[in-house]
Structure formats: C-alpha cells, structure tokens
Write a structure and sequence with these properties.
By secondary structure, the protein is α/β, with parallel strands linked by helices. It has 4 helices and 39 strands. β24 and β25 form a beta hairpin.
Length: 445
C-alpha cells in the first residue's frame, strides 16, 4: 500500500515538473499603472498597462501605453502605443504597433501590423505589414513581409526569396518579399481622388492584369491601374405654369437647352457628358426639376472650358413647345464652373456650378456684371387657350341653323309629295279624255 502511494506521488511530481507553466501559469489582466513583469508561463490576455512591461511569457491581448521589452517572450496580439523592443529569442507574430519597434539580435517578427518605424538590427523579419520605412542593418535579414514605405539600410533579402515591387504612377507603393515559388499577397488597394482602382498590371500600358494565383519565381514589378469615375453635377430649376384662359393645358413636357454664348446648342457627346433637363407639368403650379451633367470630372471641366464664353459662362434656356397657346418664357441663365478637378463623389452636392441671370442681345447671351448669383433657375410659362361655352351666342346660332335646315328638309319632302300627286291626277285625266274621244269617233263612223 505504501509503495503504491509512493508511486502515485512520484508520478504526480514528475507531471508537475514537466508542465509547470500549464499548472501554475498566471493570467494577468486589469488596469496597471505600475511596471509589470510577465514571467515565463504567465499570460496577458487583456487589460490596460500604462507602465513598462517586461515580458518573458505570452502577450495575447491588451492595450500597452508604456514601453514593452520582449527578450524571451511571445507577442501574438494586442495594441502597442509605446515603444517595443524585441530581442534575443523574443518573437512577434501579431498585434498592432503604433510606436517604434526595435527587432534586436536574435529577435524574430513573423506577423503584425506596424504603423511606426521599425529598426531591424541583427534580427529577422519573416512576415508582417509595415507602413513606415523599415531600416535593416548590415547583418539583418528579411525573408518576408509587405513594406509600404520601402526598406533602407544594408540588410539582405534572403537569397531564397524574391521581391515584388508595386508601383503607383511612377512611385513605389509597396515592396513584398516572398519565397521562391510562393504566391504574392494582394496589397491594400491604393486610393486616388476621382478614380477607381482597376488592379495590378504587369506592364506600364496596363494591358495585362496580373494573376495573384501564379507563383513568383523572379523579381517582379507590378503597376497600378486606374479608371476615372463619373460624377453627377446638379443644377436645380423651377418651372411655373400660369393659366390665363379657362382651359387646362394638361400634361406638358418642358425641356432645357444648354447653349454657348451664340445660342448654339452644345453637343454633349463630343465630351462624353450626358445632359438631362426636363420637367413634366399638369396644369397651373410650380414644378421643380434638375439640370444634370454626368461624366468624368475632367470631361465635364473640358466641356465648360471649351464652350464657355470669354467671361467663363455657358447658358441655359428653354426649348420651344409645339403649341401656339403657350407663351414660353425666354429667360436665360449663365452657368459658371469653379472647378471639378478635386471632386470624387459619385454625386456632388452642392454643385460647384454657380447660377447667374443672363441677357440676350439678338442671338447672343451674356451675364450682366454686378448680378448676384441665385440658388436655382426659374422659368414662367403661360397658357392662354379658352374652351367654347355651349350656351354662348355662337352656339345658339349654330343651333338655329340646324333647326332651319331640318325645317327646309321637311318642307322639301312635302312639296315633292304634292307635285307627285298632281302629276298622277293629270296623267289620269289625260288617259280618260283619250278614251272618250276614241269612243265618239267610232260612233260617228
């Protein structure tokens, strides 16, 4: 019995000796304003640390506002606002680093996002995302990672690796180091105001889109492709319908025309710009509409630059209506475009187009100096047709005429009947007289 108990105790001691970290590991969390030491086997999985942290254990979370020394420990996650020193056998495989990071002799970086400066001094970088320039001294090594601001210093890229350089409009956007035969990772998309990113190309002419499923076996340069986005500029207007007669005009479409200073309608297709400007009305009232210019920023600006008059305006007027009862407003408005080169939104509000009243001299339009800009264009169209009232004198005259016509038609019918009867009687009398005369002649013989 004693031997069995002794064997159990001995086995338990051996297990505890083999797994001290698992059994006695401390999970550190909470708010710490003082310095904290994380011993081998201890874990930080959360909390806030405002003082210095000495880590020989594992950091798997938390917010670190002070410095962190990681000589023998492991960092897998966390937010590091202060400076971090990773040396000896320390490793970093994750986390977000906002301050300076020093990867000293024997230190290894396998991953993480580094927004501050990184000095690789006799260390090894195997992966990670680096948003500032990474300095490598003469005995440092890089075996992987994405470097958005490049690599400086005399450090080497491992001979078993290749570099993929991403260029954006002539400048290096990122450098990625990958092992021969591995696939390159797709970097974060670059941005450019007024343009949409279309991908990475193997040629400057942007004809061949790169396939990221292909293995990298040699140095590679890729070029960013762009396509200018379309925007829509909106100019508001109000069309007012006034009715002076007693008839309703019903549904009517009023269109606007964009013209140059000589009244010539612009041809938007020449600039690849779409212009829409119409409003539907139905009787008296105010109707709001929008004049819109849709196209790329450069195309719209080019149209304004090429077509506007010497003072910088293009003009808007109403198109005619094919109905003589309408008195269509001949008002005109001058539009001035300040610039669209900085615009990138799909629809830009408020519009950078300014509106001014315009005057017409013959066939030419101009804007009077001293006129103040307005918020919208306005047009007033008048409808003057009156409907015929059935009870008026004209209607009565027409009624009498119809009545007389009926009477005349009826009288004509009676006269024809009497004439027919008279002819029948005369014919009968003639026949009778002839018969009598024939009998008398025979008797006399």
């Amino acid at each position: 019995m004693k031997k069995r108990l002794f064997s159990i105790l001995l086995t338990l001691c051996m297990v505890l000796a083999l797994m001290p970290q698992m059994v006695f590991a401390e999970d550190i969390s909470g708010v710490h304003n003082e310095n904290v030491t994380v011993n081998s086997g201890d874990i930080i999985s959360g909390g806030t640390f405002n003082g210095q942290v000495e880590n020989e254990g594992t950091i798997n979370g938390g917010i670190f506002n002070g410095t962190v020394n990681n000589p023998l420990g492991t960092i897998t996650n966390g937010i590091f606002n202060g400076e971090v020193t990773n040396v000896a056998h320390g490793t970093i495989s994750g986390g977000t680093f906002k301050g300076k990071v020093t990867n000293g002799g024997g230190g290894h970086i396998y991953g993480g996002t580094f927004n501050g400066a990184v000095n690789n001094i006799d260390g090894v970088i195997i992966g990670g995302t680096f948003n500032q320039t990474v300095y490598c001294d003469s005995i440092a090594m890089i075996e992987g990672g994405v470097f958005y601001s490049g690599i400086s210093g005399d450090g080497d890229i491992n001979s078993s690796c290749c570099s993929v350089t991403f260029k954006n409009e002539g400048s290096d956007y990122a450098v990625e180091v990958v092992k021969n035969g591995s696939k390159a990772a797709v970097p974060d998309e670059p941005t450019k105001d007024g343009y949409k990113f279309t991908g990475w190309y193997t040629d400057k002419a942007l004809n061949n889109l790169y396939n990221f499923d292909m293995p990298v076996n040699d140095e590679l340069i890729l070029y960013a492709g762009w396509k200018e986005e379309k925007i829509t500029l909106t100019v508001p207007f109000t069309t007012t319908v006034e009715v002076s007669g007693n008839a309703s005009p019903g549904e009517t479409t009023f269109n606007l025309e964009v013209v140059d200073s000589q009244g010539n309608e612009l041809q938007p297709n020449d600039y690849n710009v779409e212009i829409t400007a119409s409003v539907e009305t139905d009787g008296a009232g105010d109707y709001n509409g929008n004049l819109t210019f849709t196209g790329t920023a450069s195309a719209i600006l080019r149209m304004f630059d090429n077509e506007r008059d010497e003072y910088g305006y293009i003009y808007v007027k109403q198109a005619g209506v094919n109905d003589s009862n309408w008195d269509v407003d001949e008002a005109a408005w001058g539009l001035f475009h300040r610039s669209v080169v900085d615009l990138s939104d799909e629809e830009v509000e408020p519009s950078p187009i300014y509106i001014f009243p315009a005057v017409k001299d013959g066939t030419s339009y101009s804007v009077e100096y001293g006129e103040n800009g307005v918020d919208k264009m306005t047009f007033v169209n008048k409808y003057a047709r009156s409907a015929v009232d059935p009870s008026d004198s004209e209607g009565t005259t027409n009624g009498d005429s119809d009545s007389n016509a009926d009477k005349n038609a009826k009288t004509g019918d009676d006269t024809n009947l009497a004439l027919w009867l008279a002819l029948m009687l005369l014919s009968g009398a003639g026949i009778t007289g002839t018969a009598v005369y024939t009998r008398r002649k025979r008797t006399n013989v």
